Amino acid sequence: MTERKYSASGPGFEFSVFSRGKHAAELALNGVRKFALGRVTLEEKFSETGALEKKLRRHETADMLSVGLDSLNILPFGCEYAIGRDFEVTDGFAEFSNDISAMHYGRVGSLELEPLYFSEKPCRAAFIRADEKKFTLVELDKEKEIYSGNIPLLMLKVEWSCGDCVEYSVGTDLWRHCAAEGISGATAEFTLAFDGETLSYERRVLIYSEETEPEKRPWRFKNLIAWRSGESVSAPAGENTFAVPGCQVNPASRREVRRKVRSGKGDMCLVNASPCICSESAHVERPGRAGYTHFDLAEYVSFRLWANRQLKKSGGSLAIYPAEKTIFKNTVAMQNLQSVPRPLEMMGDNEDV
Known about the structure:
Number of strands: 25
Helix content: 10-25%
Number of helices: 4
Distance between the termini: 11 Å
Largest sheet: 11 strands, antiparallel
Oligomer: single chain
Strand content: 35-45%
Order of helices and strands: EEEEEEEEEEEEEEEEHEEEEHEEEHEHE
Radius of gyration: 20 Å
Shape: globular
């Protein structure tokens, strides 16, 4: 079967999703591939590289501020597995979720999510584990294993000598990326290593012992990719500024920021943004239940898109400025949020690769 791809392109970048092959998605900056998303592996032996294409599509919004790229593959091994991905690409960001389910009354057992590959000899990286309060800085000057453990990375920022940066972070559902610690008979392993050419981050989120029967349930994991090429450019701060403190996943915070935009006009700025890890389960519609720790960075990205979509109709815009003391101030995501998203390019039909 022919490998196909759909792409979303904008200033200096092209983000592509593939129907088959080694990579599920790739990001090229100024024509050079800098990042690739691998394929899922199930039961430690069934690789998605052997899957059959069920769906691959691209859908654009009228204002071209975002493009959706969706795929669905069927892995015809074991009980058969369905692996679906939904990407929303905007200027500087790609939010995506992957849905993994077992068919024919089967179960999803040991699960390795897509490895992340940062190619073309990146020169340095900064990462923070989900249980830490500060970033670890690493020079990528020789082959080495940088991290291996059962705690996932909350964020990983990778830089090249030309000034390009690509950054990964978990989505709002941090609790799912950490699910193994709450399952008896299961563990996890996350590994960050550099081979002299490519920095790889492997994510074995569920490793079941032979005696453990997995839950009969599907899994969904949310993720965020951010990038920039060269120096970042911030939007000038407007006079119409406002702040909404606390966890942005909180429904009350969501209502408040949207109320501010609906009642405002012109160029607006959300200031003192401070992404946080929050354990209030009611924010994710699980009131009174423990274990639903979430990370609200992706909510800022979603709000930036929504607000600019609303304000663009009347000639306005919105940028988001970080709090001075947040540890995420110099991340790619927070730098990109300070700019107004530019429209993406119209594309033709999908391509055979």
